[in-house]
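User: I'm preparing a small set of examples for a lab meeting where we compare how different chains pack in three dimensions. I only have the primary sequence for this one, and I'd like the structure in token form so I can line it up with the others. Please keep the answer compact; I'll paste it straight into my notes.
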Amino acid sequence: MDAPYAILERLEPGIARLLARNPSPFTYFGTQTYLVGDEELVVIDPGPDMPEHVEAIVAALDGRSLAAIACTHTHRDHSPASRALKEATGAPIIGCAPLVLESIGPRADASFDKEYAPDLVLADGQAIEFDNGKRLLAVATPGHTSNHLCFAFGDALFTGDHVMGWSTTVVVPPDGEMGAYMKSLDLLRQRGDRIFYPAHGPAVTKPMQLVRGMIGHRLQRERQILRLVGERARDIPDIVANAYPGLDQRLVPAAGGSVLAHLLDLQKRGMVEAGEGETWSKAKAA
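Assistant: Understood. Below is the structure token output for the 286-residue chain.
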């Protein structure tokens, strides 16, 4: 399948997208950059530092002014192009806070953008005002990263990497945190938006159904991990081998990070305990 790279696709009034040519097991066909507005625009997730993608964004503006460059988080498939786009247009970089952390072990997905420098950081509930009264509202959704924001435009929600229709989200410690991620999922469940536009993969047209399913999937994985460590002490590779049979080897590090995130959350709740040799066991009853 040929993905429509560098072609502006209009999704609904006031919302269009461009696809960056950075496909991978973690980005699907690539990062989707959204253009929001009519005469004055906001660009959401300008994407990786690829000149051809920045040129496509500038061409898609077609002479219209750019009010802001908004980033959901600072992984390198989302924010690096913000600098070239700011230089080309003069628009400010507004959105998530800067964040650079090293993961435990090699990163399974994109590393952090160390040069991300926002002109303004948005807190939960703050908005970018543009295009004669339109508002893009920041919705804090920590979990995938601690600085992750979604952006609400009316009843449409741009979900970055927090919710994707094609795959589950990678949650890798030390910055990815399972308890925060679950709370953020529940927040989206309570919001009741009409449609989700993720940074990777197709639009989610039944978002509440998907969010409920994602919450259920994570709770099921939690029960599975508790059962495995309840049988005997296990290290993370042992848990991954039993919990993810037949997993693509390219995704094993991500699965290990997800298992660790679950274990740390369960440990915080007093349900598992760390043992010798990097093993984990079910916590003994008091």
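A couple of notes for your slides: The domain at 9-215 is CATH 3.60.15.10 (Metallo-beta-lactamase; Chain A). The longest helix spans residues 207-231.

User: Perfect, thanks.
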